[in-house]
Amino acid sequence: MILVTGGAGFIGANFVLDWLAQSDEPVINLDVLSYAGNCENLASLSGDERHIFVQGDIADSALVDSLLAQYQPRTIINFAAESHVDRSIHGPEDFIQTNIVGTFRLLEAVRAYWNNLQDEAKQNFRFLHVSTDEVYGSLAKDDPAFTETHRYEPNSPYSASKAASDHLVRAYHHTYALPVLTTNCSNNYGPFHFPEKLIPLMIVNALAGKPLPVYGDGQQIRDWLYVKDHCSAIRRVLEAGKVGEVYNIGGWNEKPNIDIVHTVCGILDELRPLSNTQSPLSSYRNLITYVTDRPGHDRRYAIDASKIERELGWKPAETFDTGIRKTVQWYLENQDWVANVQSGTYREWVEKNYTGRAA
Fold this sequence. Notes:
The chain is an alpha/beta fold. It has a domain at 2-189 and 226-251 and 299-318: NAD(P)-binding Rossmann-like Domain (Rossmann fold, 3-Layer(aba) Sandwich). Helices cover 44% and strands 15% of the residues. It is built from 13 helices and twelve strands. It has a seven-stranded parallel β-sheet, with helices on both faces. A three-stranded mixed β-sheet has the order 7-9-11. It has a two-stranded parallel ribbon with strand order 8-12. The protein is globular, with a radius of gyration of 20 Å.
């Protein structure tokens, strides 16, 4: 069986669901259930004996030790992370604790476990660390995209904490020979995305008739990766990736944020058009509101995913047009899920982050 950390969050939950849709190999799912971890993401697995959920922290060494001893996983996939740049600006300490201290303690537990494995089990074991393109810093408009050898230049507390975790994983391979793999992905989107990030926030706010806040001039460029493509890439890296290597995972979809917002509004205009009785507005685009940019906002990320295609034969199945339509449709069909995640804590965060930003 495999052990997945952070498997109730956005990407982790999608991975667990996809894994069990394609394999009967059981999953131990360790998640602390912070604000973004949500067991409702895994509701379809209720009663499925292949899914063993454990609420707990990767920094809890005793718990991790006991899980490794009890279940003897052949692989660990580490999704567990604090991942929102804006939250890291308001409160960086949680990011240091989870992304750096948590990864360190997880690595220590895994190293001890791996050292006690024998023969084939030890040879075949893998630790796959899931990271982000944000560790590479920001690109100018005409700069070439990030490759796996690009220098780390993190610019936010979030990306700095992820860069530190990447370095720890690399060090444990070079110092202790721990068989690790690292993936650095671009911006994910798709089902179960917590509505503080750009795409789900635009969908949720538009349907509620609320302003669609766009930072600065909206020309920040990101590469967009449909989450199920990301999951398939991780499976492929786990299956055939070379120990100690880094693989960038991207969607080949560079787009400015404002274009993303206009695309979401256009799909909503088509699938859930505003009526005169609902709103005097003719389009959701009329809700777009430019607000003060966040501090140190990186201008452009771009992933060169040539290595994983060349060496492992992986490339994304979804274009942005197909992926974003599936995403908007999912949110329209899952309004109960949206309502349930918009707790008092979520509302407090939105007020904290957006109140006072001058239009």
